[in-house]
Amino acid sequence: MSAPHMSPDEFRRAGYAVIDWIADYWATVEQRPVTPTDPPGTVAAALPGAPPTVGGEPVEAVLADLDSIVVPGLTHWQHPGFFGYFPANTSGPSVLGDLVSSGLGVQGMLWATSPACTELETVLMDWLAQLLDLPHRFRSTGNGGGVIQDSASSATLVATLAALHRASQGRWRATGIDRRYRAYTSAHGHSSIEKAARIAGLGADGVRSIEVDPDSQALRPAALRAAIEADLAAGDVPAIVVATIGTTSTTAVDPVPEIGAICAEYGIWLHVDAAYAGSAAVCPELRWSHAGLEYADSYCFDPHKWLLTGFDCDAFWVADRAELVEALTVLPEFLRNAATESGAVIDYRDWQVPLGRRFRALKLWFVLRWYGAEGLRTHIRSGVALAARFADRVRADDRFEVVAAHPFALVCFRLRADDDTNAEMLARVNHTRRVHLTHTRVAGRYTLRLAVGAPQSTEAHVDEAWKLLAAAADDLRTP
What we know:
Helix content: 40-55%
Distance between the termini: 70 Å
């Protein structure tokens, strides 16, 4: 006999069990090793070779397998000792909002398919624009507006498509790539920029990698201008410049005012990618990083990185929503409806690559209402302070050096030694599984990164990371 659908009462009992399980996980995550120890294939080998065929299994059995099979194979991104990559942290309000979204199960591709899904998102994005003090041109009360994408990668792709539509004067919709179009970004621009260019038909060669200032690691405007002028002379069409606020390697901030002025001069679409560092703008003292946004045609940041909202949630704004809709809209007969044809509503299907969309705004709405502006500022300021504390430890030890500015909550540092020694130090520290760091290269040198962001991280966790690093350095320097 097949298993019946879960009744509301069964769901209630199972839901309590799942919430308890998550709460217990959060309460004990610090006691777990940050990264797994088992070799590849361990989880797969522990799973049955086929799905259940007769009847079903109780939720308790699934939770038991979570404990015995899944959790031991996880890297714990919510661990207070996880300092790798950039943060990707969730929170109680975010999980609850996501649960409500899943429970409602609405499809928000059109205003008509669930009006509240669209209207809440529109207002929420205006709230967020106010919270970050973004230019008024991004508000839905004017010609602009915001939408939630799944990631900054999708935001970059959508911006690239809109830019191509503008650069081709609309030909792109009908004829595709009819000449050589160019995209420009810093040598430290995110890999999603190249991927967007490839998907859009420009090819990887269509992206111009612009050199950075050796001290600030930020894009050099003079080099950008030279590349644009060289392409124009060759008959190519500059389509989009992607400036970055908070590059992945070092959180460098590109000089958006100067870049924006160049884009305005040549009529090039300017997209500003603040995927990680955009969250910092909830704090007035960190809004200096957003200087020049009045030039931007589009802008995005990821609340799912540093703003306590679970993945996936990228906030993307455009200054002229009509341009974006014109580039992306496709309206088959089965989607036609009176509200859309009235022109009085927003259909977010026209602002993204997929047709369908889930109610992502709910988890961000829950987060904003639970924490409020001051609660979010407290979280950001805590991360910045912890990073500064760690950087002070590094500077106080002559064996180490901080290799880039740390305006946010990432510190890039290295041992004053060769690359192999630094790589070995990182491996030894991560092998303790008490903390986890990652690396990059700055000016060609192997460099360690410590990124703070987990809600549970405290001074004690940052200090432990430093003690482990110092101990590893002692061992490596011992004859």
